[in-house]
Amino acid sequence: MTETQPTWSEAESARYRAAGHWQGVTFGARLRQAASFHGGRVALVDGDRRWTYADLDAEADRVAAGLRGLGIGRGDRVVVQLPNCAEFVLVWFGLQRLGAVPVHAMPGHRRREISHLVRLADAVACVVPDRHARFDHRQLMSEVRAEQGPGGLLRHVIVVGDPGPYDDFVPFDAVRVDASPAASTHTDADADADADGTDSADLALLLLSGGTTGLPKLIPRTHDDYAYNARACADICALDAQTVYLAVLPIGFNFTFACPGVLGTLMAGGTVVVAPDPSPQTAFALIERERVTMTSLTPPLVPHWMDEASSGSWDLGSLAVVQVGGARLPEDHARKLGPALGVTVQQVFGMAEGLINLTRLDDPENLVCTTQGRPVSPDDDVLVVDADGRPVPDGTAGELLTRGPYTLRGYYRAEEHNRTAFTPDGYYRSGDVVRRLPTGHLVVVGRIKDQINRGGEKIPAVEVEEQLLTHPAITAAALVGVPDERWGERSVAFVVCAGAAPGTREVALHLKERGLAAYKAPDEVVQVPSLPLTAVGKVDKTALTLLLRR
């Protein structure tokens, strides 16, 4: 990698290359190869707009040339905060052609999160929509730039749509310039390096962690390891040139983008269709029109999709596989989903840090409905350990530790955290509590991390608690997750106040004004006279959850 941080040993790297996991090809080169193999096939669909593989390859050259004209080059980090639209893919591959590094931000992130990402990554540019979901991202970026000050590295804000009154913001269409062969940043002869020197072992992108101790950390992924991530998932899912994948969940999520998702589909020569929202009505219309064969959901969407399918007014005959991940799928929903949609259900349990587990398409129904899959790679090392780090027998719950050819060895610029997040022999401490079956399938039991998983959105309790304390009425606060049939978990804020506690809506507005994403606002606010403490003086969150059961 171009950044100094823990990585795989030379022996491990040699073993992964020898096994064929790491193929020595950059993403810029992979798109060029795909264009030569599948040039006339449709690669990407967004509404009425379509790109063949040849079109997508040429578009990547145009975007790369335009970005280069702005002074963006190899190793530069660029925050990409776009909703589900084709431009995310165009920007992503344009950056790859340069050897620049996209930082995947979520559409729901606001000033606090984006400013943090810009600072942590030393981003030189951000790519945003003009407006999305009635929110003005241009105003957001104006505030972010003001926070950076005149000495900040953030030089450019690129806007998909109308830049509005901001004269120094660059419209995306102006970035798409004609790229002459002489200006191309890649040649067909390049296999393991781009023309500007990008190597397959270099940093290819930065994903976001769920963030358990405040703001998210950045997860470095190389061309080699991330391509294997997508390819291994694609092989298990039997993707090929006939695959039509519908991107329903946010396209920047690791699940949507590479498990196998967008990248896996493009690497197999299939077609990616972008859904502008996850509603079943929008998705079913696209499934009918584009003959979609595969898509991915989070558990909260499942009952809505089943209800809409029961109307019988949609032709879903092309849809063959529906993945469900991001949170644990209730067994009852797992058993009903397949018959309701006429599909094979595939459970997915993974992490942006690496390890991906999938149920197999030919697994018995009981395994599909009661487990969250098994590792995709034969070289995924998995340990389930007790509190002292000792392996536990199959069937016993313990913390999941993992390492392998696509699992990180260290967070980006997080030396102190890395000391405790990894074992001395390179295992990543996931914080997930699982049981492993003799088949290798994992059953997710819970987490040891102080993090709430609300329908796939990871909410760091510490960050929200810190911001709750800025409300003038709140003197102490603790955020806990409680089981919820719809979301998997919902968040409850226990607050200590001098007078009456603010209501849920008031708290949500306060957190919004503090710059937090809307999904981090608590679902419920409960006033308590004091916060219970453990014997060592920490807030006893187990005792708090028991209060809700009385």
- What is the mean predicted local confidence, pLDDT? 92
CATH fold-level assignment of the largest domain: Rossmann fold
Global morphology? globular
| Spatial strand arrangement across the major sheet | 2-1-13-12-14-15-16-17-18
How many alpha or pi helices? 18
How many extended strands? Answer: 27
Structure description:
By secondary structure, the protein is α/β, with parallel strands linked by helices. The chain folds into three domains: 154 residues, Rossmann fold, CATH 3.40.50; 220 residues, Rossmann fold, CATH 3.40.50.12780; 97 residues, GMP Synthetase, Chain A, domain 3 (2-Layer Sandwich). The protein is 31% helix and 24% strand. It has 18 helices and 27 strands. Strand 26, helix 17 and strand 27 form a beta-alpha-beta unit. Helix 12 runs parallel beside helix 13. The longest helix is centred in the N-terminal third of the chain and has 17 residues. About 2% of the residues have low confidence.
Which keywords apply here?
single chain, 550 residues, alpha/beta, Rossmann fold, GMP Synthetase, Chain A, domain 3, 3 domains, nine-stranded mixed β-sheet, 27 strands, ATP-dep_AMP-bd_enzyme, AMP-bd_C, AMP-dep_synth/lig_dom, 2,3-dihydroxybenzoate-AMP ligase
